[in-house]
Design brief:
about 240 residues; alpha+beta; Phosphorylase Kinase, domain 1; Transferase(Phosphotransferase), domain 1; 2 domains; five-stranded antiparallel sheet; two-stranded antiparallel sheet; 7 helices; globular
Length: about 240
């Protein structure tokens, strides 16, 4: 796939700033965005980057947006009213909010040691990320990988450790499952964080944390891991609220 098959206006900053020299092929297409593999410009220290291009506002479908946006500051009172009323201006602000929010979450979590792609650069409707894969081949979604029981146990520990690291940063992924974890070189990388919530201000955070943990445990149990979510979510939340993480 050439760059011409993606709107140049949406990604021209990545060419002009010397990040990428070609858009090669689509890696993943979802309701909110499409991810492409790009050839990196010489001197960037990487052979490839991942380009996450958000769909136009009218074609995107974030479900239950109020659940994830509770407590999130999107601007002044006028802007907040516009977002609430779904005006044209409000939808534009909301669109930019998802993009900026995910880029900020990835930067903070990567710096904290979470296994997420490193964010590189951001444009009006797209972001450039560390490419997860080998030799230009993208890492598969975990949902497409068959694990041994021993590997399932190992990766479960990694997934739960990442959930804990995120929560220590006041972040709950909010939509974690085998579909937004990549399997790369025997380890996991967690992706897709536009809906991530701030546990300090979102009243749904503990519910979303419990759901993330239940989804993760159910998947690894299906792969042979000896796991029950039990009271882990409640115990982790208690540690968080007591500032003991």
């Amino acid at each position: 796939m050439s760059a011409e098959m993606v709107s140049h206006d949406e990604i021209k900053t990545f060419f002009e700033d010397g990040w990428i020299e070609a858009v090669l092929f689509p890696v993943k297409s979802g309701k909110e965005a499409t991810v492409y593999c790009c050839k990196a410009c010489p001197g960037r220290g990487e052979s490839y980057f991942a380009l996450k291009l958000y769909r136009p506002r009218e074609h995107r479908d974030f479900r239950n947006t109020a659940t994830y946006q509770e407590g999130r500051v999107l601007g002044d009172a006028r802007t907040t009213r516009a977002v609430k009323n779904k005006s044209k201006f409000g939808r534009a602000v909301e669109f930019q909010g998802w993009l900026h929010h995910e880029f900020a979450m990835l930067g903070m979590l990567h710096a904290a040691g979470a296994d997420v792609p490193r964010p590189m650069a951001m444009g009006p409707s797209a972001m450039l990320l560390e490419f997860i894969g080998e030799g230009g081949r993208p890492a598969p979604q975990l949902s497409r990988v068959r694990l041994s029981p021993a590997m399932a146990e190992t990766l479960l520990e990694q997934a739960l450790r990442n959930i804990e690291v995120m929560l220590a940063c006041h972040v709950v992924h909010g939509d974690l499952s085998a579909y937004n974890m990549l399997y790369a070189g025997g380890t996991l990388r967690i992706i897709d964080l536009p809906q991530a919530v701030d546990a300090r201000i979102n009243a749904n955070a503990s519910m979303l944390l419990a759901r993330d943990i239940a989804n993760v445990c159910a998947y690894f149990a299906s792969q042979g891991a000896d796991v029950e979510p039990g009271s882990f979510a409640a115990e982790l939340w208690d540690l968080y609220t007591q500032a003991k993480l």
